[in-house]
Design goal:
The chain is of the alpha/beta class and about 260 residues long. The protein has helices at about 10-20, 35-45, 55-60, 75-80, 100-105, 140-150, 160-170, 170-190, 195-215, 220-225, 230-245, 245-265, and strands at about 5, 30-35, 50, 65, 90, 110-115, 125-130, 150-155. The chain is built from 12 helices and 8 strands.
């Protein structure tokens, strides 16, 4: 398939690299546009993709169009290319922009899929949630799963859950970064060099996450595997409970979800 990507920021570039790495198509079948000509030149030179500062060039050459642009400009961008976009599958990763708002700026009957990836797509470890628009087919959903599967895992959810997805997995990496930094700070407090403490903390989080995903066990069961009676781990868990870690994490997701709803109108 020919894939068009409007917007080559972090998400757009990550998708281009993911698609190429997964061999979904060759560079000459990827068309990308952006206002940053220098960035486009660099991507063309390194990856061999087709680039243009004119969005209509991208749309005219691709049957699947990915909108990797900021939410506040999506309406104006779509209005400027509306006549040319007819017949294409449109995939939007614009955070907080609902299907109905996008479809209002597309030709009647346009096939649309909304996707919420997260920043981990830049290292091929994203979790992306997808929701079908009014006219999207199962084949369209499979296309989206294939593309976003090239940069991580994919789940399907009703659009009504997208704000919760944004609050959990969209904002979640920032919460985890804070946890990693805090774990490392604890290690530094107890005498570890900063670089070693940070590597220990990051790999600990990575390994724990891999155990949850690969074993399928409930996190509580895995926690109990590490927690010996009267040992070091239960002492630390007690300290976390006293400080309200779980309530704090839950409240972070709830607050981010509510803010997503506010931004989406």
């Amino acid at each position: 398939m020919n894939i068009g990507i409007i917007g080559t920021g972090r998400i757009g570039e990550a998708l281009i690299r993911g698609v190429l790495a997964a061999d979904l198509c060759q560079g000459d079948r990827i068309f990308a546009s952006d206002v940053d000509g220098e960035r486009l030149d660099a991507l063309h030179s390194e990856l061999g993709i087709n680039t243009s500062t004119d969005n209509t060039d991208t749309i005219g050459n691709a049957e699947t169009i990915i909108l990797a642009i900021k939410p506040q400009i999506i309406a104006s961008v779509l209005q400027s290319v509306k006549p040319q976009i007819e017949g294409a599958l449109v995939i939007s990763v614009a955070a907080g922009v609902q299907v109905r708002a996008i479809e209002e700026n597309l030709p009647a009957g346009a096939r649309l899929i909304r996707v919420m990836p997260n920043i981990a797509c830049t290292v091929g470890q994203a979790i992306s949630a997808i929701s079908a628009g009014t006219h999207a087919t199962e084949s369209d959903l499979e296309t989206a799963r294939t593309i976003f599967g090239s940069v991580g895992r994919v789940v399907s959810v009703p659009e009504s859950m997208m704000d919760a997805v944004t609050g959990l997995s969209g904002s979640g990496p920032a919460f985890v970064f804070q946890m990693i930094e805090a774990l490392a700070d604890g290690g530094v407090h107890e005498g570890l060099p900063r670089d070693i403490a940070l590597e220990l903390a990051a790999q600990t989080v990575l390994g724990a996450a891999a155990m949850v995903l690969e074993t399928g066990e409930h996190p509580g069961v895995l926690k109990d595997m590490v927690t010996s009676p009267a040992g070091t781990t239960i002492r630390g868990i007690h300290a976390l409970e006293v400080q309200g870690l779980r309530a704090g994490m839950m409240n972070a997701v709830i607050a981010a979800t509510r803010r997503s709803r506010e931004l989406g109108g």
